[in-house]
């Protein structure tokens, strides 16, 4: 028999990686990570009023919705198999003040939304944020005293808000404010109020990122912000500090951990999953969404492929799920592939 060994066989020791890539069926057999509808959390924006769907200019395809429209959207999401929604309110300017006191109103916009969705679509999860930025006149996530975001007074307030959100039917409290001690304080507050079954998704590593701009437009805080948020968000340069922050959240009783933003911080997603073993989520934030949409609109990239590739990379980085404005698009795409 003629020896057909090639130089490449000698170089590779007869190990050819392309054997597993040679056909569609082999590639499917070898697939390491898969994106499914079960990985998706859909963030939605709520506004006052009735029967209003309001496009957000900086986020093509994303709308602000009144509570009644949010209920309709929740039904559609549940029918597609999306497990959970994350709700963010755009409250009236006249209800915003220095301390964000409107967050302590039991019947405020975010709590009305939770109650309405839970009544109409009980099988979909509701994740709510207790940061104060949608409720403050200065756009910060905490209470501003002079030039300082005061930590402890803010924590006291968000604990009270978390209990009210749980009372309204929230399944998971997701505090994005990055105040020290907030996870443990919220856990104690929820338990004392009899909400032992309500989970906490810690924004364990929320970075002082440039990617939040379209979100701030969506909740009308961009023009309000005085200064920046660098005294409480994490510097993008600091990975070790991010892990220390996450470790404290784990010790304080977080049930799940979130990395925000997503794509620029895949290393943090992986390190958190390896370090703690808790479910880890990434938030593909508004700026990440907007840049894909803008590039696709200009014909520079294939928008659908970019959407799917970026979401899959979160899975590869160890994430158990992703908060993404693409959730409905992805769910519809996956249903067609069915």
From TrEMBL:
Its EC number is 4.2.1.24. The active site is at residues 206, 260. InterPro entries: ALAD, ALAD_AS, Aldolase_TIM. One of its GO terms (biological process) is protoporphyrinogen IX biosynthetic process. Keywords: Heme biosynthesis, Lyase, Porphyrin biosynthesis. Pathway: Porphyrin-containing compound metabolism; protoporphyrin-IX biosynthesis; coproporphyrinogen-III from 5-aminolevulinate: step 1/4. One of its GO terms (molecular function) is porphobilinogen synthase activity. Signal peptide: none annotated. One of its GO terms (cellular component) is cytosol. The keyword Amino-acid biosynthesis does not apply. It catalyses: 2 5-aminolevulinate = porphobilinogen + 2 H2O + H(+). PROSITE patterns: D_ALA_DEHYDRATASE. Pfam families: ALAD. The keyword Lipid biosynthesis does not apply. Homooctamer. Belongs to the ALAD family. This is Delta-aminolevulinic acid dehydratase. It comes from Ciceribacter naphthalenivorans. The gene is hemB.
């Amino acid at each position: 028999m003629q020896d057909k060994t090639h130089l490449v066989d000698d170089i590779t020791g007869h190990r050819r990686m392309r054997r597993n890539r040679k056909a569609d069926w082999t590639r499917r057999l070898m697939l390491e990570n898969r994106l499914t509808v079960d990985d998706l959390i859909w963030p939605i924006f709520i506004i006052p009023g009735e029967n209003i769907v309001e496009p957000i200019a900086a986020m093509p395809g994303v709308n602000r919705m009144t509570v009644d429209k949010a209920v309709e959207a929740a039904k559609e999401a549940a029918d597609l198999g999306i497990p959970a929604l994350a709700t963010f309110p755009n409250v009236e300017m006249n209800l915003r003040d220095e301390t964000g006191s409107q967050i302590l109103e039991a019947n405020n916009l975010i709590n009305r939304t939770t109650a309405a969705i839970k009544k109409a679509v009980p099988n979909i999860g509701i994740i709510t944020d207790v940061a104060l930025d949608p409720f403050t006149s200065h756009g910060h996530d905490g209470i501003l005293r002079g030039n300082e975001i005061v930590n402890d007074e803010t924590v006291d307030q968000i604990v009270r808000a978390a209990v009210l959100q749980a009372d309204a039917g929230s399944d998971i409290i997701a505090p994005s404010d990055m105040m020290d001690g907030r996870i443990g304080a919220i856990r104690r507050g929820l338990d004392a109020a009899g909400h032992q079954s309500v989970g906490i998704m810690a924004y364990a590593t929320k970075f002082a990122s440039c990617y939040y701009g379209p979100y701030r437009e969506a909740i009308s805080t961009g023009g309000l912000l005085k200064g920046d948020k660098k005294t409480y968000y994490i510097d993008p340069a600091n990975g070790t500090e991010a892990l220390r922050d996450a470790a404290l959240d784990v010790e304080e009783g977080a049930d799940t951990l979130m990395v925000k933003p997503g794509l620029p911080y895949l290393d943090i997603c992986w390190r958190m999953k390896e370090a703690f073993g808790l479910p880890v989520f990434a938030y593909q934030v508004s700026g990440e969404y907007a840049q894909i949409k803008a590039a696709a609109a200009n014909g520079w990239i294939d928008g659908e492929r970019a959407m799917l590739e970026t979401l899959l990379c979160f899975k590869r980085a160890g994430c158990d799920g992703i908060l993404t404005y693409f959730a409905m698009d992805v769910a519809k795409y996956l249903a067609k592939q069915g």
